[in-house]
Amino acid sequence: MPHKSNTDKKNGKMYCNGTWDKVLCWPSVAAETTVFLPCPPLPGLDPTKEAFRKCGPGGRWENKNPGDYSLPKGYTNYTVCYTPEAYEVYLKFMAGKTAAERQSMKHIAAGTRTMEIVGLSISLVVSLISVFIFTYFRSLRCHRTRIHRNLFVSIIAQTIIRLVLYLDQYAARLKGGEVEGAAGSNSQTIFDTPVFCEALYALLEYTKTVQFMWMLIEGLFLHNMIAVSVFSGKPNYLIFYLLGWGSPIPVTVAWVITMVYKHQVKCWFSYTFTPFYWIIETPRVAVIAVNLMFLLNIIRVLITKLQKSQTNEPHVTKVRKAVKAAIILLPLLGITNFVVMTDPPSGVTAFGIWSFTTYFLVSFQGFFISLLYCFLNGEVQDTIRRHLCFKRPTRWDASHTSIRIYMYPPPKKQSQVQMTLRKHWGQFLQNRMVHSTSFRRGSRSFSIFTSITEVPNVNQRRQSAIPPPTGNAVPLLREIVARSDSRL
């Protein structure tokens, strides 16, 4: 459709109408004129530079291609506004692509961010539940779960900060403008809050490093417990705390000082693309490399132990079990984070596969760790069952007879025989209830691994010198207890 030319009635000169490009408001200018405006203060743009538009000879705004006036609103050139890091992103993912491909890239980025928010929310909830379970039940408190708790706390802290930043960015995109290669923003977002924005990102990177350090401690503790029996004693938690919570501090401080003096960009936008990011990324890569060596040695030890076991299974089956058990360790040791550190491809299809795979593993990492090492742990399940059973009256069926167990107040006086009978009768009923609610593991390889890492049952350590009654002794024991009650 042809566009009407704009002519000033007073002097008869051609001009382009004022227009709004969703970011800046451009005034009307004379034909064959280039107008400049300061770059908007958006993430990835330098406000000290100037964007520009061109008004053609016919009084119409020029489009991206010179001499093209098909679109009435024309084209604003913001490429001169980009910071070096943002411009690198633009060249890799936007430049040279068709409009449909650029739109697909935007849809992929938006879809992965939504998936990431959902995954982080789920990970936050299950991690909080895991910390509560390992803290509330005393029978689950041991060296291994103590390390698990610290790992979960670091995941919770990082997840909360990520959700705050992501939700703030989402709100900014809804209210602010959008420039290709940059994010929207407004005056009410964290991005426009000096110092606080930088401090929040510094805290985010600190918690990420803390998480990696506790994954290193997980790998070190598990490796020493399985492969190095000489170090299987009580761990030194002071060293663990210094390594897990203390060692990331000097690394983060060094990175923050470097960013303050070398990357003076608002809210440190695109800081992950700067060479200074390797100050904090290098220790994380080292942790993944060390944990990978731990994992390979653990696989070797498991295969050796399976070969020495008295079973008639073929060698391939034993190796398969060891590998399956080792795969369970991948999220706990943080080895899946290696995918995030790889350079994303520039192709639309490859970028989509990389994005969804990477951010799925990262955002749901807390969920998988909680699932494997808390909710699917046999001792955790048995502990919760016992807790629920003793919270309410319980039925037990023995010899086709139902007995209700209630928590009666203790009698004032009891003989030694009565106390002994009551003690072992209660232990016998408890053992029968736990046995009746036990379940069979679905995977033998998972049983091999959890048999090493499961929490020790405190109740099993408190065994009496008198053996539990057999099935034939149940009626006689019940009769003795009844007579003992009648004499009180």
TrEMBL record:
<dbReference type="Pfam" id="PF00002">
    <property type="entry name" value="7tm_2"/>
</dbReference>
<keyword id="KW-0472">Membrane</keyword>
<feature type="transmembrane region" description="Helical">
    <location>
        <begin position="238"/>
        <end position="261"/>
    </location>
</feature>
<feature type="transmembrane region" description="Helical">
    <location>
        <begin position="353"/>
        <end position="376"/>
    </location>
</feature>
<dbReference type="Pfam" id="PF02793">
    <property type="entry name" value="HRM"/>
</dbReference>
<feature type="transmembrane region" description="Helical">
    <location>
        <begin position="212"/>
        <end position="231"/>
    </location>
</feature>
<feature type="domain" description="G-protein coupled receptors family 2 profile 1">
    <location>
        <begin position="1"/>
        <end position="85"/>
    </location>
</feature>
<feature type="transmembrane region" description="Helical">
    <location>
        <begin position="323"/>
        <end position="341"/>
    </location>
</feature>
<feature type="transmembrane region" description="Helical">
    <location>
        <begin position="149"/>
        <end position="167"/>
    </location>
</feature>
<feature type="transmembrane region" description="Helical">
    <location>
        <begin position="117"/>
        <end position="137"/>
    </location>
</feature>
<dbReference type="InterPro" id="IPR000832">
    <property type="entry name" value="GPCR_2_secretin-like"/>
</dbReference>
<dbReference type="InterPro" id="IPR036445">
    <property type="entry name" value="GPCR_2_extracell_dom_sf"/>
</dbReference>
<dbReference type="InterPro" id="IPR017983">
    <property type="entry name" value="GPCR_2_secretin-like_CS"/>
</dbReference>
<dbReference type="InterPro" id="IPR001879">
    <property type="entry name" value="GPCR_2_extracellular_dom"/>
</dbReference>
<keyword id="KW-1003">Cell membrane</keyword>
<keyword id="KW-0807">Transducer</keyword>
<feature type="domain" description="G-protein coupled receptors family 2 profile 2">
    <location>
        <begin position="112"/>
        <end position="377"/>
    </location>
</feature>
<keyword id="KW-1133">Transmembrane helix</keyword>
<protein>
    <recommendedName>
        <fullName>PDF receptor</fullName>
    </recommendedName>
</protein>
<keyword id="KW-0675">Receptor</keyword>
<feature type="transmembrane region" description="Helical">
    <location>
        <begin position="285"/>
        <end position="303"/>
    </location>
</feature>
<keyword id="KW-0325">Glycoprotein</keyword>
<dbReference type="InterPro" id="IPR050332">
    <property type="entry name" value="GPCR_2"/>
</dbReference>
<keyword id="KW-0297">G-protein coupled receptor</keyword>
<keyword id="KW-0812">Transmembrane</keyword>
<comment type="similarity">
    <text>Belongs to the G-protein coupled receptor 2 family.</text>
</comment>
<dbReference type="GO" id="GO:0007166">
    <property type="term" value="P:cell surface receptor signaling pathway"/>
</dbReference>
<dbReference type="GO" id="GO:0008528">
    <property type="term" value="F:G protein-coupled peptide receptor activity"/>
</dbReference>
<dbReference type="InterPro" id="IPR017981">
    <property type="entry name" value="GPCR_2-like_7TM"/>
</dbReference>
<dbReference type="GO" id="GO:0007188">
    <property type="term" value="P:adenylate cyclase-modulating G protein-coupled receptor signaling pathway"/>
</dbReference>
<dbReference type="GO" id="GO:0005886">
    <property type="term" value="C:plasma membrane"/>
</dbReference>
